[in-house]
């Protein structure tokens, strides 16, 4: 744990390379084989890229934007820029051109780094036209014949030549970086408007690393490894993932793609794994779907094993101890059921970390009970990714844990969570009015999330403040809870619950593209036919019924519609982090919503 010895991320990275030069930093798949890279080799690569950027005029306070997948090259550029005192901005690959332009202009980017020829050709016209953007660097492609372009390899070679003339150049520049310098600017997803830039300084990030280093990964050893696959433009993968790994010395394997993730997880067999709740929801739903197709005997075995798993989870977390009969049954349940489920993730996972969206308690209990601990956390870009966390030694399922050390919090009268202290930023980039509105007179940041805290300090998130629905009957409905229940059906991609000032709640449902391809093949129809196919409608009706059975009467979905296509970034209904833009959905599907209310149920 090196953060306690450092003041900046530039110092942290150099210290990690010096302390564990021969330990594996990461591995990536090349021609079907996993190839490891040590911290020493990574440090040498970053040194060359940093010197190359310096040769191109990049210096302290400048901005480098990076648009590309979760790959080692992304991190090479990030660490190189930080060594110079420059700031980095992650840009999501699925952003539209005008959205990319906005981020580059707002952040005053001087250099844009991209992967491959397609984004290079698409975004090259911006170079020289925006006030500050001067150059584009490309990896996985060798550009030719344009002075505005350079490959990452050519930049590294330029840096190597510069280091031959001045060996201590990068070390000198890294030593000049100050804790108050901005390290990275993370842009919010923009659910309610234009994305806002969140500047995170070196000192702020190092202080956050100090506070969190003992919370989640309490028993890291040299054999431990995680998987990296989430976009590095997201604060969780960038800050908690990348900077957290540097601090802890934790190795990672870069997944080739999201589509190959589960296959590669079984090859790497990670010991720690970060995943969004949707992965667990899908896995749980698919397990139940397969069990429903099995023989009655196998269904009975699974039901007993599932019930035992829940009792085991509750017992492990301080509930009623398991009976002697349950303890005797555990080895058999493990051999017949639990071991197979753990094998999907390689069989070695010690701890899962999940956040960003609600997840049902029964799903958490199930995975805990089969031997895969799931720690829920909560945070925002404005709080360096994690502000509250369950830990390996202190977990309360159904909550996002307790405040990290040094974080102060309180709940507003309406339940909104207010925070200040460790990891909390100081204000938005170029937005003084929005910054002033975001903080109260005592310096508490208004998160926009609503929650409740139990007597032991464990926080439970109920919903976004702006998402709460108040029905015509005066009852408050939490859409997130309903939506999470419906998403237990693997066919479901997105759920939008509507009902503000209405007599009851209704839902718009979209289908998951990967699941529809599989189901369409089983049914012998085209995927486009599924939104109206009787079997699909039956499955959606069933999951709505199951969800309603677990909801109060005023929360229940009285009517629903399956939309012909999924929500999307291009359609203006999703953010880059795949969150629903609720206002946009309500406007775009207003006629459909009105039809659901046309006749009282």
Distance between the termini: 59 Å
Query: What is the name of the CATH topology of the largest domain?
Result: Rossmann fold
Tally of DSSP β-strands: 25
* C-alpha Rg (nearest Å): 25 Å
What can you tell me about this protein's structure?
The protein is α/β, with parallel strands linked by helices and 601 residues long. The protein folds into three domains: 3-177 and 213-273, ANL, N-terminal domain (Rossmann fold, 3-Layer(aba) Sandwich), CATH 3.40.50; 276-465, ANL, N-terminal domain (Rossmann fold), CATH 3.40.50.12780; 468-596, GMP Synthetase, Chain A, domain 3 (2-Layer Sandwich). A seven-stranded mixed beta sheet has the order 7-6-5-3-4-8-9, with helices on both faces. Strand 1 (24-30) and strand 2 form a beta hairpin. Helix 1 packs antiparallel against helix 2 and helix 12 (296-316) packs across helix 13 (324-343).
Compose a concise summary of this entry.
The chain is of the alpha/beta class and 601 residues long.
Write the layout of secondary structure elements.
Elements: H1 9-19, E1 24-30, E2 33-38, H2 39-55, E3 63-67, H3 72-83, E4 87-91, H4 97-106, E5 111-115, H5 117-123, E6 135-139, E7 149-151, H6 152-165, H7 169-175, E8 182-187, E9 197-201, H8 202-212, E10 225-228, H9 235-248, E11 251-254, H10 261-268, E12 272-274, H11 277-292, H12 296-316, H13 324-343, E13 351-354, H14 361-369, E14 373-378, E15 388-389, E16 402-403, E17 407-411, E18 416-421, H15 432-438, E19 445-453, E20 459-464, E21 469-470, E22 476-477, H16 479-486, E23 492-498, E24 505-511, H17 513-523, H18 534-549, E25 557-562, H19 582-588, H20 590-596
Parallel strand pairs: 1-11, 3-4, 3-5, 4-8, 5-6, 6-7, 10-11, 12-13, 13-14, 24-25
Antiparallel strand pairs: 1-2, 8-9, 14-15, 15-16, 17-18, 18-19, 19-20, 21-22, 23-24
Helix pairs in contact: 1-2, 2-3, 2-6, 12-13, 12-14
């Amino acid at each position: 744990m090196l953060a306690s010895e450092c003041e900046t991320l530039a110092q942290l990275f150099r210290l990690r390379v010096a302390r564990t030069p021969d330990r594996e930093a990461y591995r990536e798949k090349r021609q079907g084989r996993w190839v490891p890279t040590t911290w020493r080799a990574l440090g040498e690569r970053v040194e060359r890229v940093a010197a190359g950027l310096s040769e191109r005029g990049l210096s302290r306070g400048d901005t480098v934007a990076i648009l590309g997948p979760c790959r080692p090259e992304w991190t090479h550029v990030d660490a190189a820029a930080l060594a110079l005192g420059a700031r980095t901005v992650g840009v999501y690959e699925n952003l539209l051109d005008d959205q990319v332009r906005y981020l580059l202009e707002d952040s005053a980017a001087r250099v844009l780094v991209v992967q491959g020829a397609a984004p290079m050709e698409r975004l090259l016209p911006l170079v020289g036209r925006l006030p500050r953007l001067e150059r584009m660097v490309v990896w996985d492609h060798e550009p030719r014949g344009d002075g505005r372009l350079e490959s990452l390899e050519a930049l590294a070679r330029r840096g190597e030549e510069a280091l031959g003339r001045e060996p201590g150049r990068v070390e000198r520049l890294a030593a000049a970086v100050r804790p108050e310098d901005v390290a990275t600017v993370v842009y919010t997803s923009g659910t309610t408007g234009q994305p806002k830039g969140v500047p995170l300084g070196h000192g702020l990030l190092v202080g956050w690393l100090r506070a969190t280093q003992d919370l989640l990964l309490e028993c890291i050893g040299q054999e431990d490894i995680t998987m990296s696959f989430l976009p590095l433009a997201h604060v969780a993968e960038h800050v908690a993932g990348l900077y957290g790994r540097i601090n802890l010395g934790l190795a990672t394997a870069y997944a080739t793609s999201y589509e190959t993730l589960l296959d590669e997880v079984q090859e790497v067999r990670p010991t720690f794994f970060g995943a969004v709740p949707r992965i667990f929801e899908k896995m749980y739903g698919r397990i139940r779907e397969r069990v429903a197709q099995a023989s009655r005997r196998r269904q009975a075995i699974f039901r007993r094993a599932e019930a035992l798993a829940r009792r085991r989870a509750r017992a492990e977390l301080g509930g009623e101890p398991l009976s002697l009969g349950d303890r005797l049954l555990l080895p058999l349940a493990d051999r017949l059921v639990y071991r197979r489920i753990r094998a999907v993730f390689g069989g070695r996972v010690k701890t899962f970390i999940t956040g960003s969206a609600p997840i049902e308690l029964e799903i958490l209990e199930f995975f805990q009970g089969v031997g895969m601990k799931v720690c829920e956390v909560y945070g925002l870009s404005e709080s360096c990714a994690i502000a509250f966390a369950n830990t390996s030694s202190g977990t309360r399922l159904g909550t996002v844990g307790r405040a990290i050390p040094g974080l102060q919090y309180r709940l507003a009268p309406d339940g909104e969570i207010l925070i200040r202290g460790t990891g909390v930023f100081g204000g938005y980039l170029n937005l003084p009015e929005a910054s002033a509105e975001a903080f109260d007179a005592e310096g508490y940041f208004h998160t926009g999330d609503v929650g409740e805290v139990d007597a032991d300090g464990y926080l439970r998130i109920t919903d976004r403040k702006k998402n709460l629905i108040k029905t015509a009957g005066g009852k408050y409905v939490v859409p997130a809870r309903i939506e999470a229940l419906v998403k237990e059906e693997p066919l479901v991609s997105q759920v939008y619950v509507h009902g503000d000032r209405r007599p009851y709640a209704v839902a718009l449902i979209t289908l998951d593209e990967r699941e529809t391809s599989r189901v369409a093949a089983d049914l012998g129809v085209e995927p486009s036919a599924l939104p109206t196919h009787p079997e699909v409608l039956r499955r959606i009706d069933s999951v709505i019924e199951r969800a309603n059975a677990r909801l109060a009467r005023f929360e229940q979905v009285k009517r629903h519609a399956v939309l012909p296509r999924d929500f999307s970034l291009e359609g203006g209904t999703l953010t880059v982090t795949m969150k629903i833009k609720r206002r946009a959905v309500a406007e775009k599907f207003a006629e459909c919503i009105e039809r659901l209310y046309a006749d009282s149920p």
